[in-house]
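Lab notebook, page 48
Experiment: co-folding of the full assembly
Goal: obtain a model of how the components sit together before planning crosslinking
Operator: M.T.
Materials (sequences as entered):
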Amino acid sequence: MTELEKMGARAKDAAGILRIVSSEDKELALKEVAGALIRRQSEILEANRQDLAAAEAGGMPRSMLDRLALSEERIRGMADGVTAVSEWPDPVGRVLEEYDLPNGLHVRRVSVPLGVIGIIFEARPNVTSDCAALCIRAGSACILRGGKEAFRTNLAVTRIMREALSDSPLPADCVQLVTDTDRRSATEMMNLTEYLDVLIPRGGAGLIRSVVDNARVPVIETGAGNCHIYVDKAASVEMAAAIAVNAKTSRPSVCNAAEKLLVHREIADMALPVIGKRLREKAVELRGDDASREIFRDIRPATDDDWGKEYVDLIMGVRIVDSIEEAIRHIERWSTHHSDCIVTEDPAAAAKFQTEVDSAVVYHNASTRFTDGGELGLGAEIGISTQKLHARGPMGVNQLVTYKYIIDGNGQIR
Amino acid sequence: MTELEKMGARAKDAAGILRIVSSEDKELALKEVAGALIRRQSEILEANRQDLAAAEAGGMPRSMLDRLALSEERIRGMADGVTAVSEWPDPVGRVLEEYDLPNGLHVRRVSVPLGVIGIIFEARPNVTSDCAALCIRAGSACILRGGKEAFRTNLAVTRIMREALSDSPLPADCVQLVTDTDRRSATEMMNLTEYLDVLIPRGGAGLIRSVVDNARVPVIETGAGNCHIYVDKAASVEMAAAIAVNAKTSRPSVCNAAEKLLVHREIADMALPVIGKRLREKAVELRGDDASREIFRDIRPATDDDWGKEYVDLIMGVRIVDSIEEAIRHIERWSTHHSDCIVTEDPAAAAKFQTEVDSAVVYHNASTRFTDGGELGLGAEIGISTQKLHARGPMGVNQLVTYKYIIDGNGQIR
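Observation: model returned without errors.
Model output:
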């Protein structure tokens, strides 16, 4: 057995215990974890200082160093996150359906834990405690593989979590960290079908693509957001500008940020100068099709490469469309089907758009930035699914479970 | 663009229409299809005769020829299946959740079609019409790739279905058959991520393994059933014998047939001679552990290879266990987590078994043969999922959909 297989076997044993412990025990254990993160924060901060020093010496850019850095306040945030998840209603053990068959069989469909969840993530060390807490609340053990840059920090966080779990009714092996951070361990993890029930990649497009391409374990694809704001001919220009600016600029590095602006031709002459000006005041670089470049003559032309791209930056592609149908076709062709929005005062146009655009979340008159577990009332999220199987959109604890049929008879045969 | 990519693009267009047609139109279209299958059955029978002649000349074994062969009666069955699916309540457009957020956003989570479903299957030509009907009822277009042996039959069936669809409000491209039946087309299909939302393999263990290993498109793993009957110390021996015989012998070639018999040591001396005799009277070959071979001295020893195997034949592995815990551990180690059963008069033992055995369907005092969409009241099924993502156990039309969030605001920004 390889190290990872041994880890898988231990996780499976832990999952067997998690499957039968009470909701209260899971809550208690997570409270222990939250307390320990605060109590032992100096260990985490020391490990994080070492990671930061190594990363800085290695030439890591400022923005990434900032993601990697922890502080007392950030650790408080991690602990608060664990506490909030601990108090979320238990998603396990719910009777989703219950009925009797004519032959007397009594059928119950009941929510149960997934089992063992693998998570491959990149630099941010708070992901470690967030994901582990979500998995435990949902009754699953997890195997975490974080980025090399945050390794010492992740190790400190998981050590503290494991020791806190040891003082609780749950086994320490509910949370394990892969200590081998070279590429081989990721590949092995993607093929650990005997032990992993699901694999969730959290990170940039490259990581997600690599997992989708190589995994034999079932994957939940998360993240990429090429989100659109379509300004219909019946839009309020003021509302469209406010939504576009918010969706583009309030946090350009996240997946629910808008990347493209489509404007109906009938309103473009009036609306686009206003919206474009407001965006440019916020330092957004516009790139446009020919028609929009007649309004903004100084902007770069947008190519197919632009239409397909998630900039994750203060850049926005702009296109003028002849009709709502053309807007929908553009979105169907280029969207990553994460979140798309129509701004209009016409309810029929809104209904058409929301029916025909095949994305996880389709907005009418609201910023795409609301696609977030916390914002939508689902609690903390483990990621935003952009595939259609299992869960779509933000995945909270309620989406981290499966179900089974429990059938009672008195000797029925077929 | 390759042929398959063109097919994918056409399927995506058809899916766009299917997404917005009414429930009545889908029902009407499927009724057209059912009628056409009956009306034009001579074309199907003629194509099937050619397939059979070629298969026989190629030396196909009798049992497989039987699966391949159609008759007027079997075509009637196919048409009746399509009609039954057409009348199933529409799984699309259901509001699964609806709530208002404090900021005034109105959130609806609504069931929507998956989009384009790929199905790779083996010899049985009735799968063609079954799967196509289920996909259409669930609002998805499908791309079917059947076995080489049934190619002419599948072509006739899909041609008739497509022509019937052309006379309906739905486009013919709701159903397409891959006409290139060499291995390359299967591999290409497994990687058609741009067009396929999900891929479902239907067939033997080899096909399923190959799809799981090679697909980048999300897969729903179906089928393999190494199902267990555990006879608890508090079992009714008569009931245990009836269930074991039914689960093993009523149709040994299917995935919900039982493959293993576990008997509690305290009841074994009394129960195993009775159950074993009844099985052997039905021509079942027993293979046993050391303890059960003291009761049946003439049977072959069972090896680890036996414990892990789905025989799909009149063979059954037998093991005597010291406790319910040992039975559960055995099942956790060897089951494919399809369907497992406890026979007992002790409700506490049943509850323990049903909680701790992590399989799609866990029975108490009933045959594993009930794991079937029709039997469980889910309607026709596209397969039985043995993975935990998306759907578990029998998948009917209700499991062939996904959901999206439709959110209405009046200018909310974050």
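Interpretation: The first strand of chain A starts at residue 95 and ends at 100.
Next step: discuss with group before ordering constructs.
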